[in-house]
Protein 1
Amino acid sequence: MKIPGMWQLRKLSRKVGKRVQGLVAPGTLILMYHRVAEIGSDPWGLCVSPQHFAEHLQVLQKLGCVVSLRQLQQMLENGKHPSRSVVVTFDDGYADNLYNAKPLLEKYNIPATVFFTTGYMNLKQELWWDELDRLLLQPGTLPSVLQLKINGEDFSWDLGNAATYTQSEYQQHRNLLVWQENLPSLRHRLYYSLYKLLYPLPTNQRQEIIDEILTWGSLQPEIRETHRFLTLEEMDKFQPSELIEIGGHTVNHPFLSTINYASQKEEIQKNKAHLEEIFSSPVVSFAYPHGDFNPDTVKILQELKFSCACTTNVGRVARKCSPFELPRVQVENWDGNQFEKHLSMWFKE
Ligand SMILES: [Zn+2]
């Protein structure tokens, strides 16, 4: 089973390299952030704490190497070899982007592109992977056996003693990342099994199963303050400027390669139109949800006058890189020193 590119990045990030100073390797690194927040459990490692994010920005400011995505795109268009530089991007549009990330970007004068998923503004529940976290990775008691039919196939899991997840187990395991091998927590293993089964499904089908799982766990509808997305009014405060560029990220965050041409186009076009209406500004950059796309996706982006798109493929942007296949690197919750070491490693590879 193919795991989305986004999650493949961890392997690479475990290596540690030398410091940035003195390196001559050309190319641009596009950093991929999702959230600037501190939350109880973060099974994918999507959160960077505000303190660490400030330290990342201090490193970038010291290195003086940040360009905007628009500048990078122009460099590629002009056939210029990108110099050793860094672009900052955010995916999805969690509320902490406005309250925690934006003030720090302004403080350190670092430009960033934020890719918004417009369907998230009106969600009546949390995102499906956050719902799984709320159900499985928070303390509480669940029924012992979960049985599901997914794509005509029957699945059954027995939680045994893990039916009850105590506060102390939660404290002990809350920093586990679900893709790690030999996880000591059955709750985390179940989370990952369900994630792998659910992610390839069409949005509606996936939601039906999520609802079934939530009913099984008697979980009441709730959107945690720590896991909500920006409202329309809040998005309005994210006005594009010299520092902030707004990019597209579809309406419903689907795996684009799994849906037909017309559905892909609708996802991308409606998102672009909505963002342009909110911000009264053209939206020309895009990030593929889950890093997933196919040749149709690129064709649609070109038809809709997008000028570039970011993937989750790991790497540096080189001179001949297609503007619709820009690689990125995922940033984790490192302190400033660790962040600088990873920059160095990425520039070298
Ligand atoms: Zn996303």
Protein 2
Amino acid sequence: MDYHPITMIKKIFKSALFQTTSTLFVSDKTVLLVDPNWLPHEIETIKAVTKKYRKGREFYLLFTHSDYDHIIGANAFPEAIVIATEAFSQNPDKKKVIEEMHYFDESNYIERSYPITYPMVDVLVSKDGQQLTIGDMTLVFYLAPGHNADGMFTIVEEARTWIAGDYLSDIEFPYIYHSSGEYLETLQKVDTILDTHQIDELIPGHGNPATSIKEIQKRKLENHRYILELRSAARTANEFDLSALWNRYKFRRGMESFHQKNVELVAREVGMKLS
Ligand SMILES: [Zn+2]
């Protein structure tokens, strides 16, 4: 798709925790903020920068998915128009997500100047290719279930930027909380998106942006291989190649339990006669 370039400011904030990203886009008419997180002082910084650019612009808040780390800062921006998937809005486990936020804050003695609640969604995303114009910005969405049940990819056309949520990270292998099959189907959308949109940068939910098509394809391939290897190990009771995994991903002590949970989830799926 071809879009007229407009003046666009883009800022990526990266939390000290899990390298979680929050991205701010500013155009002539619009401010779009994605997943503001985690720590109070980090959110205060994001808030101050956002405020500087508000000046009468329309203000939108977008959530890539409902994992608690991505929505914990939501209520610092109560005036924003909220964009997320229909599945996000209908999440049957809202109470669990709220509990996780409280647990995190109370475990770390964190006090916030705003309440913890599950975000109310104003603009619902429900299908691939859905387009939304917000002021002078054009967003195109693709549903991205697999990591959890309610993720989405967002293309900010004028910024030639792809907001990927918890997919295609350079520092994390796939964390599969929902379904390995749906995760693979979501990865299949990478080629469609690259064929349809001009992408200069992909911003993952954790880690560093990919700034070339080659890097995006590489991450897709790594994610794909990891899931196929998990499945094959579960089917044949072969050992997963852990040494290769920990050579590739460096936060081993933090990531081991996530790999183990992936192994268990895929074992359950294989038990359910996964095709
Ligand atoms: Zn996350």
